[in-house]
Write a structure and sequence with these properties.
This protein is an alpha+beta fold. It has one domain. The protein is built from five helices and six strands; from the N terminus they run ααββαββββαα. Strands 1-2-6-5-4-3 form a six-stranded antiparallel β-sheet. A hairpin with a 2-residue loop joins strand 5 and strand 6. The protein starts with a helix and ends in a 22-residue tail after the last helix. The C terminus is likely disordered.
Length: 147
């Protein structure tokens, strides 16, 4: 894991392991060039926020900015002068770190948490799912077609 994170300025062993929860979800869209996101459950909000902030401060070659969407601060970056990196956006919301390759995808994740899917009417109309096992990993695939 540390090898995969070597260009981010963080270490899995030193920065991530302490707050990593038991669930990870991936949000993907079908089609070339579509944004994606990873939602990582957290067991320690303070440590997760420190790690996310470290990502921002360790990557000085990125042009960082923040915005507030739906009451949540979202940080995003575009590659700086050397252009060897990809865009990134992140936030921490509802006990989870959300990391994506586009700010719009992070905004959609934030919006989804307040969608009709969280209403009691919706919940009453959907049968209960089996309880997840502690070794399971959740993967969510969102397909959209935009005209």
């Amino acid at each position: 894991m540390d090898a995969a994170l070597k260009d981010t300025g963080i270490s899995f062993a030193n920065d991530v392991r302490a707050w990593l929860g038991t669930q990870v979800a991936f949000v993907l869209r079908v089609g070339d060039g579509q944004p994606s996101a990873m939602i990582i459950g957290s067991k320690d909000e303070a440590k997760a926020r420190v790690t996310l902030d470290k990502t921002r401060t360790a990557n000085h070659d990125m042009l960082w900015s923040s915005e507030t969407h739906d009451g949540v601060e979202i940080w995003s970056a575009k590659p700086g002068g050397n252009g060897h990196r990809s865009p990134i956006a992140y936030t921490y919301v509802d006990h989870a770190a959300v990391i994506a390759d586009a700010t719009a995808m992070v905004e959609e994740v934030c919006h989804t948490r307040r969608s009709p899917a969280s209403s009691t009417t919706f919940e009453a109309s959907v049968p209960p799912l089996p309880a997840p096992s502690t070794s399971s990993v959740s993967a969510a695939v969102a397909a959209s077609s935009r005209t």
